[in-house]
């Protein structure tokens, strides 16, 4: 079954304790992205990756890191979490947009990770 | 910059009622437009999309038409069911970064 998986689904942690949220897709997608969802704000992009070893900042990258060593995996790292990073996080993947076309393929989303930082 | 505005929720309807959720956008060029749906406890899934002006996306009885003259992509369904209760997001694509720009989401609750 084609899917995006995330782990863990729920996490409660304390300020400053490093954590990693994993994301994996089995559709051979080049493009992967992380979003956070907050009430009244919709989803905002944190980081994205066009392909292996190619990552870039989205709209709200502060306090986050990512890596893309393999095509299927795109972990989100919080080196020193703070309470304002309490949120619902989604990983998404798709085929890459052909450069210059402006087209956007359907993005497939994981089930979400609810993170609480106290 | 590009942006998406959705009508405020929550929207509460009785079963079999007609649904409209308004979505307008601001963008340069010719972005793709999407509606995603989020059922309770789940991730987002694509409901429908349109890639150029006057395109109509449709799926599961839902429809939306890409109106460039009014910069709108309103979601409609003729007869809603309790199972349609969810959060609906309008989104705009088309940038070379692959980013989707989302509206704030509209919660729909359908009562029997």
Overview of the molecule:
The complex is a heterodimer of chains A (118) and B (112). By secondary structure, chain A is mainly β. Chain A has no helices and 11 strands. Helix content of chain A is 0%, strand content 48%. In chain A, the strands form 2 sheets. In chain A, strands 2, 4, 5, 6, 9, 10 and 11 form a 7-stranded mixed sheet that branches. The model of chain A has no long low-confidence stretch (mean pLDDT 92). With 112 residues, chain B is an all-beta fold. Chain B has strands at residues 3-6, 11-14, 19-21, 23-26, 33-38, 44-50, 56-59, 62-65, 75-77, 86-92, 101-102, 106-111. Chain B is globular, with a radius of gyration of 13 Å. Chains A and B meet through strand 4, strand 5 and strand 9 of A and strand 6 of B.
Q: Radius of gyration of chain B in whole Å, from Cα?
A: 13 Å
Instruction: Estimate the global geometry of chain A from the Cα principal axes.
Output: globular
Q: Considering DSSP H and I runs of 4 or more, what fraction of the residues of chain B is helical?
A: under 10%
Structural class of chain B: mainly beta
Number of strands of chain B: 12
Keywords, please?
heterodimer, A: 118 residues, mainly beta, globular, B: 112 residues, six-stranded mixed sheet, 12 strands
What's a concise summary of this model?
Chain A has strands spanning 4-7, 10-13, 19-25, 31-38, 42-51, 54-57, 65-66, 76-78, 87-94, 108-109, 113-117.
